[in-house]
Amino acid sequence: MQFDDDAQLDPSQVEDARASGPRPRGGGGMMPGGCALPIGGKGGGCLLLLIGIAALFLFQIIPTNLSGDEQQPQPAPQQSLPSPQGAPTGNLASRCKTGADADQSEDCRIVGTVNSIQAYWRQAFAERGHTYSPAKTVLFSYAVNTACGRADAAVGPFYCPGDKKVYLDLSFFDTLQRDFGAKGGPFAQAYVIAHEYGHHVQGLLGTMARLGNDRRGATSGAVRLELQADCYAGVWANNAVRTGFYTQPFSQAEIDEALSAAAAVGDDRIQRRTTGMVQPDAFTHGTSEQREKWFSIGYESGSPGRCDTFTGGI
Prior knowledge:
The chain has helices spanning 52-55, 92-95, 99-104, 106-127, 171-180, 186-205, 221-239, 252-264, 267-275, 288-301, and strands spanning 14-16, 136-139, 143-146, 149-152, 158-160, 165-168. It is α/β, with parallel strands linked by helices. The protein has one domain (11-306).
């Protein structure tokens, strides 16, 4: 990922809450996650898992009662959370000004990635006669309070429709690589962020409203929602150079990082790894093959119109 050195970053799109975030209540092992699924309560409360392990309810990260009762995610005791790895938490505005900064700093790379993703969707909405409303990304450690409730770092990256923000604990990416076999790398991070912004786009377009109570199963609305977000991530990747933040298209090695991350978080792979068996009735995000497939459809086409996962087979 080579940023244009002269590209002007907008750090106001990213909030750094790592120094002030609340500590978790009790222990909790870091597990991959993500958010787009409304779980009831006033104001559209939601937590949405990017990775299927939490959706299996093996670790009680989210409430199993999704009927509308107000509940907050309560991770079951696991190993203690790791300490932050010396991540700088100073003012992003003073450190992340240009693409050159994004090439040198992980924090600034996140800023540049968010800027590019939102620049693309602003263009895509405008081309279709609509107005894109930007969403901020919040960097946090341990836990964070959101309009969707209090989220422990164990939930992983998620999008909260209640406040229209993406929440991200950067230690998630180490877990994704170390414990779930993903290749890792900067573009794996970009894929995850683009996936979460895919949920923001779904919220703006009203797609989330199609979910209803269809939240588990191989062809459920939840699976279709997640695969569409994967497709949207691929669409952005195809169009990233057009946003002015990158100097050249992503290499095949970088695309492979995204495909590896997508495959690592497939429902079937997670279930087989954790339980030794695959239970399609419990799917919430799609298989490894489906996640790779839909990211690739988005990437190869570069068109959001090719991301209709709600029609026909998936």
